Each structure stands twice: as structure tokens, then as C-alpha cells.
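Q: I have 198 residues here and want to know how they pack in 3D. Can you give me a structure?
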Amino acid sequence: MSESILTAEFPSQVRGYSKEAVDRFVHGLGSRLESLEAELQKQTERADRLADELKKSHTELSTFHDKERAMAGALVSAQEHKTNALGEVEKMRAQAHTDANEFMDAARADADKLKASSEQEVEQILVEARKTAEDITSRATAQCEEQERRIEALRDEYQKTLEFIRRHLETQLAGLDEPAIRGLTTTPELSNSVVEAA
């Protein structure tokens, strides 16, 4: 369109506008149109790039949501595992106390039988019984604490992963040029004005 304006010729008449003035005006109009067409092409290419980046960001965001749902499911599963583990540990602890009590009762019974013959032997049996009971309780408590540490480590890993993905997406989205995107919305109006001028 700009080339047709620059090369346009009009018939000469004896009376009319100055040919030099008309040529200058037409040349200026054609140059302006060329500049507008170049700018329109530039903005169109930029819009295409931004559209590709936006599509990529949407894809990454969708992937993030999938991972977030998967991590949430893993956390729920871990919580259920913790609850089950705590239940099992509590049962083990109760059984340990029962076993310890039964062992203590048996030890006391044996000690009562042997008390007449040897106070020293009775004391040794009671010491060993207490130690055995403490060991059983200590092992049960250690298992419970180990389960809690594993679950806490899983929760920490989930939070770190979630924060990493969010920072990555925020960095990607921050790279989009919002003023340029708003400028693209005026491009159709510029194009219509050029067409009307032509």
C-alpha cells in the first residue's frame, strides 16, 4: 500500500495545486504509512512471542497444579501412615507395659520365694526386671519418635518443593512485558485508521 502511494501519479492541469507540494505531501504520507506498517509488523511478531510465552506459562502452571495435587496426596498418605504408625506404636507401648508388668509380677513372685534364702539375689532380680521393662519401653518410644521424624522430613521436603515451583513460576510470569501487552490491544485501532486513510 505504501509503495502505491509513493509511486502514484496524477494528471497535470493548468490550474490546480502545486505539483511539488503534492509530491512532498504524498511522499511524506507514504513514508508515514511505511513506518506504521513496519511498527505493526513488529508488534504482531512481539504479540506472537508473548502468546507463545503465555502458553508455555499456562503449561507450566498446569504441571505445577498436577504436582501440587500429587504432593498433597502424598502428604495425606503420609498423615494416614503416621496415624496408623502411632496407633501401632501405642499398641506396642501398651503391650510393652503389660509385658513389663507381667514380668515384674513374675519377678516379684520369684523374689518372694527366694527372699528367705537370699536378699541379695532378690535385689538383683528386681534390678534386672526394671532394666528389662525400661528397655522395652525405650524401644517402643524410639520407634514412635523415628516414625514422627520421617513424617516431619517428608512434610519439610513437600514445603521446599512447593516453594521452589512457586518461585520458578513467579520468575517466569514476571518476565512478561505487561505494558507491551496493553499496547497490543490498540494495534487493531491503528490498523483501521491506516485503512481508512488509504
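Q: Anything worth noting?
A: The CA atoms of residues 74 and 136 lie 32 Å apart. The radius of gyration is 43 Å.
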